Automatic annotation (TrEMBL):
It comes from the Bacteria. It comes from Demequina activiva. This is DUF4865 family protein.
């Protein structure tokens, strides 16, 4: 599996109601996307919780790269996001750990993303095992309904995403309001 994280910084005067409207219109199209494990759309609004700028973020997990490629290069996928918002920051990582509680996911309200630091000196086998264990530990928390851990093989940098309920946590990462979540039963 592979995780794709796309993020767009938006100006403070950008109409976030417009972003929410686009997500409401376009998000459900992903509900039946072939090869999709999950797709989360989140927003951060300037001025709330000390946030300085608006940001729109997407996290998707795909069963294989060809299915993710269809989203990346298809007209209705990332190309649409680029046309709507301009420059998009994109990170792609193999999934090192994934835990889902599909029954609880509809109640999720928060998309939380943490970028780890590069660790090129530790063997990838240890980093991968640690990421897998971190996802398994995270899902045991009552408020976490999906835990995704990615690992960049070049740098040894880990990446974490938890989809959960509750208030944003004090962490080194970014918390987004979860606006739409697609989680097809079968990827």
């Amino acid at each position: 599996m592979i995780v794709l994280h796309c993020s767009v910084a938006l100006p403070r005067d950008y109409d976030m109601a417009r972003v929410r409207s686009r997500i409401a219109a376009d998000g459900p199209a992903m509900d039946a996307a072939a090869g999709l494990v999950l797709f989360a759309h989140g927003v951060r609004e300037a001025g709330s919780g000390g946030v300085g700028a608006h940001r729109y973020s997407q996290v998707s997990v795909w069963a294989n790269t060809s299915r993710m490629g269809a989203y990346l290069w298809g007209v209705g996928g990332l190309e649409r996001v680029r046309a709507q918002y301009g420059r998009v920051e994109v990170t792609v990582s193999p999934v090192a750990g994934l835990q889902l509680d599909r029954a609880a996911m509809p109640s999720a309200t928060i998309l939380e993303i943490v970028d780890g630091v590069a660790d090129a000196d530790t063997p990838l086998s240890r980093l991968g095992e640690a990421a897998k264990d971190a996802a398994a530990k995270a899902i045991k928390s009552r408020d976490v309904h999906a835990a995704i851990r990615g690992l960049d093989a070049q740098t040894g940098r880990t990446w974490a995403c938890d989809i959960r309920t509750g208030l944003p946590r004090d962490s080194d990462g970014e918390s987004f309001e979860l606006v739409h979540l697609s989680a097809p039963a079968q990827p």
